[in-house]
């Protein structure tokens, strides 16, 4: 608080007024220092909860890899020529070598203007140029597998807007989209039209329906060059169809493909180039190591989380060490302050309910038999050689690697069901972890939550203490000003008394 009042510091009394007021204010600041320490502790605790949030999120990522069948694909595939085909093995693939011949690729029905479109002034057309002269109109029909539509061009239409009309065209009867893409390329001054789907049944037919003497826009789209006049009779300007893909895989002819991505015998093929003459060799090999690595990574991440939680829950708070105030920190060296902070931060999550409940739920998820799996099949992690050591108290797991590898090699489908089914290990662990993260977010906010947007329980408590501290700062400023007024008044009174005493002494003397 600013004041214009002049302060007199012991001139008449001889007292060290400044030191006395400082000592008095130290006592007065005790409630504020306590609030500061409470706020500091809550901020440390919030950070500790957010660190736990990150730890759990890391473990969740490990569980997520095992929630789906893709995490249990025990095979890998390779192509002898990746310029012709890319391959990937599914979990039901059969190891071996297969021959692939690509007779043809699936293609869309496509129209590309043969020559650049030239305007009446002899220059190449641009996307924003008008197609027709003022007062003119033209029309054509466009037909696809999905139906037929009539396109009308007015004097306001540009090459770009015509492309948009074609792309948005719908069948006149059903209202279904024709499924034709269209664009005008300003660099080449050409249209490109294509069906959205591939296959020999796809088609695009352009028929000029303009009145005699009008511009044959259908012909212009097809052939380019200078605009020709319509004869006034419906004339087909273009009639194109798509192409079916055709391959021979391991001696089996596969025809009428409407996509260049196809799955055969558990192998996903991405066809890139037709080559009826040459053969590509597809190799499918057993790859159980990736499954083993994913499961081991999951268990090790679980053990790391258990270790971390147990340490935090069991570490008690040392009540002899409270957060340092600024004044206290100034009295210590940097190393002393660091050691003090280390002690003061102990027990931030001692016996925390969220952590304890999460530990209990996770242990249950890991140890409980999976429901819905028939008797005689793998239903528990222990049957894979994953279990807690005898008399273990911390709940961590150990892996019998030989037993796990044997199970992966001999019972891959049962292991997949153990983790990925509705009540599977990975599925229920993922669910419990999400619940824990939600609780932590409500308690302390997410790891990246800004203080201004923190609506968590701890965030509200910290903000509330901050407001109390502001009020105390104002109150202490008033108290200090009051002390100064009191001491100044005392000094003024003593000064006057001394003057009177000196005057009387002078009169007597």
From TrEMBL:
Q: Which Pfam families is this protein grouped with?
A: FliD_C (PF07195), FliD_N (PF02465)
Do the record's keywords include Iron?
no
Domain named Flagellar hook-associated protein 2 N-terminal is located at 13-107
InterPro entries, alphabetically? FliD, FliD_C, FliD_N
Keywords for this protein:
Bacterial flagellum, Cell projection, Cilium, Coiled coil, Flagellum, Secreted
Instruction: Write out the annotated subcellular location.
Output: Secreted; Bacterial flagellum
Residue ranges constituting the Flagellar hook-associated protein 2 C-terminal domain according to the UniProt record: 246-499
Q: Which GO terms describe its cellular component?
A: bacterial-type flagellum filament cap; bacterial-type flagellum hook; extracellular region
From which domain of life does this come?
Bacteria
Q: Does the keyword Ligase apply?
A: no
A GO BP entry is: cell adhesion
What does the sequence similarity comment in the record state about its family?
Belongs to the FliD family.
User: What is the protein's known function?
Assistant: Required for morphogenesis and for the elongation of the flagellar filament by facilitating polymerization of the flagellin monomers at the tip of growing filament. Forms a capping structure, which prevents flagellin subunits (transported through the central channel of the flagellum) from leaking out without polymerization at the distal end.
Q: Quaternary state and partners of this protein?
A: Homopentamer.
Name the chain's protein: Flagellar hook-associated protein 2
State the organism of origin.
Bacillus canaveralius
């Amino acid at each position: 608080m600013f004041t214009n009042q002049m302060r007199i510091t012991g001139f008449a009394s001889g007292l060290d007024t400044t030191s006395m007021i400082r000592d008095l204010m130290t006592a007065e600041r005790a409630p504020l220092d306590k609030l500061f320490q409470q706020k500091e502790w809550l901020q440390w605790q919030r950070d500790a909860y957010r660190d736990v949030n990150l730890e759990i999120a890391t473990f969740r990522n490990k569980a997520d890899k095992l929630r789906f069948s893709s995490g249990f694909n025990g095979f890998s595939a390779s192509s002898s020529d990746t310029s012709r085909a890319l391959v990937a093995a599914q979990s039901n693939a059969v190891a071996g070598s297969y021959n692939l011949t690509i007779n043809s690729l699936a293609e869309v029905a496509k129209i590309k203007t043969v020559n650049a479109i030239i305007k009446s002034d002899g220059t190449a057309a641009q996307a924003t140029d008008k197609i027709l002269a003022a007062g003119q109109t033209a029309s054509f029909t466009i037909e696809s597998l999905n139906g037929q539509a009539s396109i009308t061009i007015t004097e306001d239409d540009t090459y770009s807007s015509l492309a948009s009309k074609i792309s948005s065209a719908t069948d006149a009867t059903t209202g279904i989209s024709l499924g034709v893409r269209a664009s005008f390329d300003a660099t080449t001054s050409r249209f490109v039209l294509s069906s959205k789907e591939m296959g020999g049944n796809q088609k695009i037919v352009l028929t000029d329906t303009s009145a005699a003497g009008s511009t044959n826009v259908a012909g212009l789209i097809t052939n380019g060059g200078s605009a020709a006049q319509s004869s006034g009779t419906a004339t087909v300007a273009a009639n194109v169809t798509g192409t079916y893909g055709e391959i021979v895989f391991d001696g089996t002819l596969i025809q009428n493909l409407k996509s260049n991505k196809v799955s055969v015998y558990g192998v996903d093929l991405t066809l890139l180039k037709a080559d009826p003459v040459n053969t590509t060799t597809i190799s499918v090999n057993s790859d159980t190591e990736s499954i083993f690595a994913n499961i081991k990574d999951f268990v090790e991440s679980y053990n790391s989380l258990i270790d971390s939680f147990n340490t935090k829950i069991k570490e008690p708070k040392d009540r002899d060490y409270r957060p340092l105030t600024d004044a206290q920190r100034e009295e210590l060296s940097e190393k002393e302050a660091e050691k003090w902070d280390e002690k003061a931060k102990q027990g931030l999550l001692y016996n925390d309910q969220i952590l304890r409940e999460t530990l209990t739920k996770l242990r249950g998820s890991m140890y409980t038999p999976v429901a819905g799996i028939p008797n005689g099949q793998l239903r528990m992690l222990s049957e894979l050689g994953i279990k807690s050591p005898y008399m273990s108290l911390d709940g961590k797991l150990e892996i019998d690697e030989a037993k796990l590898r044997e199970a992966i090699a001999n019972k891959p489908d049962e292991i997949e069901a153990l983790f990925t089914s509705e009540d599977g290990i990975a599925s229920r662990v993922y669910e419990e972890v999400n619940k824990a993260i939600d609780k932590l977010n409500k308690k302390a906010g997410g790891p990246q939550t800004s203080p201004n947007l923190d609506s968590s329980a701890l965030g509200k408590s910290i903000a509330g203490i901050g407001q109390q501290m502001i009020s105390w700062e104002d109150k202490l400023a008033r108290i200090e000003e009051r002390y100064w007024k009191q001491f100044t008044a005392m000094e003024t009174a003593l000064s006057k008394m001394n003057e009177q005493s000196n005057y009387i002494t002078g009169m007597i003397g």
